[in-house]
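Hi there, hope your week has been kind to you so far. Thanks so much in advance, here it is.
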Amino acid sequence: MNLLENYYKKVIRYDLINKFSYHNLGDIPELKKIVLNFGCKSFEIKNIAASLSALELMTTKQGTVTKAKRPNIMLKVRKGHPVGCIVILTKIEMYNFFLKLLTQVFPNLKDFKGVKVSKKLKPKSFSLTLVDLINFEELEKQFYLFTNLPPLNIILITNARNKKELMYLLHSFKVPLI
């Protein structure tokens, strides 16, 4: 069992039960999955291959290439062309990546004050974007391959019913929020 998963089950669940009233244990908010996404502006194969291998190194899970659903003349993208890559993490892999994000990546970011919370926050998910990806140890070892990666979109998906529950859950996991 992961450190964060154990912390959630032993501490955060009981704090949530004491803070909010639940009639069913299934109503208690929890982290369901983490979605990591690279959206490449140009569909050059070397950029997509670099971002796909970066995702695989960061998460130890194989990613999939996303293709354009409809054509976009302004971006010069045709239908079916690759436009990015995605990895969906659940269970143990999710907690391992989240622990790595909280303990290794966030503390090593330059001029990092915290993650900004949007006013249009949805209760089911929380998203953030990382621009400087060289703080991942796996990418730092071979930085010359990953010099021009696009920003990484990270989406934390929960089953929280409202914004208060989501914010309390994120604060309990010690996510640095502004």
